[in-house]
Amino acid sequence: MSVTMSPKDFATATPSWWCPGCGDFGVLSALKQALAELGKQPKDVAFISGIGCSGKISGYIHSYAFHGVHGRALPVATAVKLANRDLTVIAAGGDGDGYAIGAGHFVHAVRRNPDVTYIVMDNQTYGLTKGQSSPTSATGYVASVSPDGNPDTPLNGLALALAAGATFLARGFSAQPKQMVAMIKAAIEHRGFSIVEVMSPCVTYNKINTYAWFKENTEDLTVHDGYAPNDKLAAFDALTREGDIPLGIIYKEERPTFEDRTGLPEAPIARLDLHPPREEFASIQAAYR
Amino acid sequence: MSVTMSPKDFATATPSWWCPGCGDFGVLSALKQALAELGKQPKDVAFISGIGCSGKISGYIHSYAFHGVHGRALPVATAVKLANRDLTVIAAGGDGDGYAIGAGHFVHAVRRNPDVTYIVMDNQTYGLTKGQSSPTSATGYVASVSPDGNPDTPLNGLALALAAGATFLARGFSAQPKQMVAMIKAAIEHRGFSIVEVMSPCVTYNKINTYAWFKENTEDLTVHDGYAPNDKLAAFDALTREGDIPLGIIYKEERPTFEDRTGLPEAPIARLDLHPPREEFASIQAAYR
Amino acid sequence: MIVNCVEVMFGGQAGDGSLTTGDLIAGVFKRMGLEVYTYKDFPSRIRGGHTNYVIRAGEHHDYGMADAVDGLVAFDLEAVEAHIDEMRPGGFVIFDNTSETIPDEVRRADVTWYEVPLGKMAKVDLGLELVRNTISLGVLGALIGMDPEIIRHDVRGVYQRKGEKVVDLNMRAIEAGENYVLEHFGDRPSGYGLVAGADGDRLIMMGNDAISYGALVAGCRFMAGYPITPATDVLEWMSKQLPKFGGVVVQAEDELAAITMTLGAAFAGVRAMTATSGPGQALMTEAIGLAGVLEIPVVVVECARTGPSTGMPTKTEQSNLNHLIYSGHGEIPRVILAPGTVRESFELTVAAFNLAERYQLPVFVLTEQALCQSKATLAPLDIDKVKIDRGKLIDDGEVVFGEYKRFAFTADGVSPRVIPGVPGGMHLAPGSEHNDAGVITENPRNRARMMEKRMGKLESMRPELPRAVLHGIADADIGIIGYGANRGPIAEAVQRLAAGGVLTRFLQLRTLWPFPDDDIKEFVRGAQHVFVVENNYTGQLMQLIRAVVGPLDALHGLRKYDGRPFRPIEIIEPIRQMAEVAQDDTAEVI
Amino acid sequence: MIVNCVEVMFGGQAGDGSLTTGDLIAGVFKRMGLEVYTYKDFPSRIRGGHTNYVIRAGEHHDYGMADAVDGLVAFDLEAVEAHIDEMRPGGFVIFDNTSETIPDEVRRADVTWYEVPLGKMAKVDLGLELVRNTISLGVLGALIGMDPEIIRHDVRGVYQRKGEKVVDLNMRAIEAGENYVLEHFGDRPSGYGLVAGADGDRLIMMGNDAISYGALVAGCRFMAGYPITPATDVLEWMSKQLPKFGGVVVQAEDELAAITMTLGAAFAGVRAMTATSGPGQALMTEAIGLAGVLEIPVVVVECARTGPSTGMPTKTEQSNLNHLIYSGHGEIPRVILAPGTVRESFELTVAAFNLAERYQLPVFVLTEQALCQSKATLAPLDIDKVKIDRGKLIDDGEVVFGEYKRFAFTADGVSPRVIPGVPGGMHLAPGSEHNDAGVITENPRNRARMMEKRMGKLESMRPELPRAVLHGIADADIGIIGYGANRGPIAEAVQRLAAGGVLTRFLQLRTLWPFPDDDIKEFVRGAQHVFVVENNYTGQLMQLIRAVVGPLDALHGLRKYDGRPFRPIEIIEPIRQMAEVAQDDTAEVI
Ligand SMILES: Cc1ncc(C[n+]2csc(CCOP(=O)(O)OP(=O)(O)O)c2C)c(N)n1
Ligand SMILES: Cc1ncc(C[n+]2csc(CCOP(=O)(O)OP(=O)(O)O)c2C)c(N)n1
Ligand code: SF4
Ligand code: SF4
Ligand SMILES: [Mg+2]
Ligand SMILES: [Mg+2]
């Protein structure tokens, strides 16, 4: 039986804690839309988020939601998937959460390729702690802790993921809901680790990377005819060359998932019978005789 | 006055704890040779290492050596350089230290570009803890914790660094001392963060990636005429395409160092006079009146 | 009754400007010659969500909130509902009645209600809704008698850089507020008569400002940190100032990097520090152990907030003490200093840097949201008194290679320490156990000796540690022990209890580790009852005291763990009750 | 004197095969019907560096080393020099004199020296230097009377998979050793007469094996870990077995990932665990707090080693207790169980999983290198006794959305727990403070109540916690308290002291947190002296006891912190001395 779902089925009663106009609203509604269109049910969705304004999103998606510690959403999500393959596992967090404190886990999640979708809500700043530079802040971005401008070169999370062996990379913009919905759906349907980086403006602190700025400085990859998201070198080029920020599905490849490679059984291990035939235990003991 | 130095000037009295034949011996002697050829003096070298068989190298280089905790050599090294720009700062560690537990710091050190040289002694295994898979172990590598073979795809540390904005990337092989010495010298002389990844066989645990295997499966990049280490896309291609593992200087670019961008004074801050004119302190207090 | 003392609470939604206005009010009180303490109760979100800012002002320097709120400036009904129970009978509420009305069940009869259409006045009369804060300032000022000239002067100061037009608008807003009071409520009907005192030369500072300033003056020239409430202030402050003094601040990728960077800089010879709060402190655990075994001097500022985990990030708590003392595998010497006032935040930070270098170990400055993010008035800080003592540091000249031993055994456990660049001093500093020369060894005799050397420093340093402060009546039967932000409410409780005939004495601990066993024993001796006041559930300080004096019946825990600081009455009441019950009991405890 | 009890030490260089030979000897002893305990003293390096492997065998199950070494098999002079002082007068040394000679100052006269050119015999006579270990086995067996058939049987077992040639070679090596003894020293001259007992059905296992097996039987089906000595064994064991039972093991990128993966799997409904040692445990600090506030059941095995920092990674210590109890910002309930034997390692691991799920919190199994990497003989483990109790888990059926509250307030503090996939149970599990439904709130009343709910579990669980074990004479004047690997040497000390007329009783703690206050009070009551035996510098257990019973004069710390476990005599001597001094003193302590 297939149930028709609506985005409202994924809404929670809790009022959001975001500032009016925050880019994260767009991400939230695209997510709910995508889940509904895919016919997912809240009980089968595990939603794991990091800490930050962005991380609060797990409180606004009606699902089994886990709002953990800063930077560790991906290990949690990977394990939830291993524990129960039947779940649709989605992780989300900010650019600080994913690319600063969480950078190591990010690289390793990519490498492992669990069937998890990761949404990076990139506002090029640390929103919740009041606007410090994040790894994606532009060089020279002025903030409380960098009064003379951010001295660092921004990190290119998607390029990093590509180098680490990503199998699905996309980038959206929170003011372009249609594209985002399509992208998130494709990401969830991708078998393997899928990353959707969303440009999600912080209207309170980031006065550089505003909605207007993104409109000016992004372009849809598909406008270049002939761009096919299956060439790693072309993807690296698209991600790293100077010029507008590319939006769209940037790269996609098939590779066995972590679940498959670890030889996990088909049924969720969360539901295993914990009482196998006692001989199986006894034979282990025999080896110590 | 320039002093002529010999590798022996960098030798310590402590006997090494490595297994006979370990690849790390080659790295050590190339390092001492390079430091001597550059005319460095032990007192001006700060050598920071991680934890692992490889990490023990700091005990065998006569210098100011710091043998810290697992995975954190790069933050220490970055800070030592900021604290005293006059020092030649070298960090070293294993593939586990740098690419597993240290992956986040690695990416961020690359991005910051401090004038530090980082030597990754890659034996594709965790030597000191007895041969488990490391991030660079081949898929299928059989070890105590992966009796059915390593399920993960190996991580390409240099490609990762390239994506993160590396300014100097080289790869050597511990059985090719000449090339290594040249490479390490170039790395130390490079203004910015320089990475030398050395294929350094673990003769005790890694029975796949042996000296013989490396001889078979590596090739010098310079054999391809026309390879110039200044094209990011070509470097990405060289690093990620199937085929032999490329050795040599893979990529090089100039970018302001972290020290320069943070506006550090020319003189070491470790030697600052801590008693500036009292008015400078007093004027700060006045702002709270 | 006309009183020269008031606690004002500003309540509204986060991000609506109450922060600026609260600071403004605090500044005006200060300039009027009153002593000020502020407390911020903000939600962990950027805009929206109930927020309040408490400003207490009076002639006495009490460092804490009063028993109750005198005047509440409520921008919405939520603020009234949340705080009406905290109002003093006889207090007053200024309520913005533009779009909401006070329901009867909320409208306490023992409180005066001044309803003012602040929003409407701002929007309709002045054309900018934002200025309703400034109007409320006019209203408040007129009601309780704040100096109108100082208000204008300070408001001008804040808006000057936005241009004359904005300043003008705000001036008219103040006037509108004042006039509204005159027209509707008459001249200063609230009963408060704030008398301008002699200002003298005073500062108003947050604890975090004082810590930062202390670090700078003490010679700190390197800081690495990662943003986290309520410690970010320190990172921000240092980012602004350190570069001017040749130093540098790094925003690290996480706290693991922040602390190991701090170690690296200190190893290289710079006075270095980091600042964090609970979650970050938890991540630093491993590296603190490294600092201990490498004998590297680092200062770690811990601005505690409500845990566990993310907890309530903007609320206060004293639940990190155990972590600072005990966390980490293996045993290292470490020092924990806990200031109780803004001035002490400065002084103990300076002490922290000297202790760290003299004894070559990590020193924590432990503070908490209710102190580090609270402003208070204080006399200027005497920077000439600050002495920098770098201990056995060799950063110049030369040592003899082979003779020099970085971890040499000495009487006080402290070995001469060279920094990179000094000729002859080359050595390995290993996190593994090592001999006096830094060579790694697993020899059992060396191991035992090294443990004794390192841990022995905790004893040799005792005479130099900041002593506990004794408040109140030296031989009173009832004792109180506490530290940190509780200094304020406890000290006030002691005075007020004395006024009511209950004599108490209060031992304010300033060094929490090594634990001041002798001071505690001495203090408890002869006391009939000892109250241990702390903001946590398990009684962390109490437990430490019990290990020193035993699990006495006369030890009473007074604990609060709802994220809010003590109000003095919460300390006074249980003690008063106990004193009444115990009136006849005159036996000594020890 | 012919004794049926021996402690053999195998000393040489790391990586030279002494591990295999040590295991072999232990197996032979076991099969001969003796009880065996082994202790590995390896350096933190792969090859080279002095190593020794101690095998103690006898009729009594003593779980620890003897006072001294009876027989040392020394493959080099370094081994002799390092351990000659640990030899029992009357003991013997088998020394490989192929290339080194014993200097006079080392050659103790009260020890018998059997010099055998093991290396030469191996290389020259048998053609393979590696077999010198097997030759030494022949020598040893002949000297002390190990069953030659069992030796052959076991050696065959080890080398079988290398082919018949290798087996043959090793058979000849055994014979060569035996013949050398016959020819040069006569038949069994050492004085030891090991009598083969009835083997019955027994196992020989390391603590880490028993923990792993316990976890498997208790239903653990997910493990994430990061290699670290001495915990890696558990990761390896589980990697081999879990997949066969449908489970999975992940080698994480670091310990931060390992513990958060464990939390993720447990949240999703799998019985999950991780295992680590000090440095890794330190890195897990933040996430343990998250487990506490999210009320997620996880089991964390801590295999302690010598700290601080890298310390001595292959040596033993009990210096992690404070960390496990107190680390982390904020306060959470947690449980710490500490097995004292291999059997208890199994049993308490099972208990850990049940407690974790029944009370929805992190449970630590605290062990240490001297127990978890030591082998011992034991009767078979009764797996039918194992009961899996998942507590208030709802992993099936359905709950009513809106009615169901994940963090519902209940009498015992434990709320019904659904797992993802169950219809109607959707909720947010936030590390921030939350209400019963999981909605984040900073309301002070809710906060206080939630703290009380969570922490209250520590009290409601008390009746279910593994009780302390009382050894020795129940009303003896002298008490001893200890836990973990010290169970063995203390229990032996109690017996031997009694034989010498000094009566003692020993309280072996098995639950270390929540701290067994009542057991401790009860035990200390009536004791004249209480010795607290532990392997650390600061007396972590002692401090906990002081907080319960006070800083009594009669509490004595017996501590060792050189990385090596206690030998029984180190406990016996101080107690005997005290007993002599205190003979007349008969007053009770409490
Ligand atoms: C271990 C730890 N360190 C620091 C913090 C404080 N903190 C909360 S959110 C955040 C960064 C937020 O930035 P980002 O991830 O980009 O999310 P955003 O708020 O911008 O959506 C930080 C540093 C924390 N909660 N935990
Ligand atoms: C926090 C922490 N976790 C785990 C360990 C144990 N450990 C020591 S070295 C090592 C890995 C070594 O691998 P690698 O970095 O590749 O160095 P190698 O020994 O191969 O040279 C590990 C996991 C540790 N010391 N600290
Ligand atoms: S601070 Fe920025 S990121 Fe956070 S809610 Fe407001 S607009 Fe969004
Ligand atoms: S174990 Fe491997 S990496 Fe370590 S010293 Fe031996 S050969 Fe080298
Ligand atoms: Mg962000
Ligand atoms: Mg390695």
Please describe what this structure looks like.
The complex is a heterotetramer, with two copies of chain A (289 residues) and two copies of chain C (590 residues). With 289 residues, chain A is an alpha/beta fold. Chain A has one domain: Thiamin diphosphate (ThDP)-binding fold, Pyr/PP domains (Rossmann fold). Helix content of chain A is 31%, strand content 16%. Chain A has ten helices and eight strands. Chain A has an eight-stranded mixed β-sheet, sandwiched between helices. The longest helix of chain A has 14 residues. The termini of chain A are far apart. The model of chain A has no long low-confidence stretch (mean pLDDT 95). Chain C is globular, with a radius of gyration of 26 Å. Helix content of chain C is 37%, strand content 21%. Chain C has four domains: 192 residues, Pyruvate-ferredoxin Oxidoreductase, domain 3 (3-Layer(aba) Sandwich); 182 residues, Rossmann fold (3-Layer(aba) Sandwich), CATH 3.40.50; 75 residues, no CATH class; 121 residues, Rossmann fold, CATH 3.40.50.920. Chain C is an alpha/beta fold and 590 residues long. Chain C has a seven-stranded mixed β-sheet, with helices on both faces. A six-stranded mixed β-sheet of chain C has the order 2-3-1-4-5-6, sandwiched between helices. The chains are: A alpha/beta (289), C alpha/beta (590). Chains in contact: A-B, A-C, A-D, B-C, B-D, C-D.
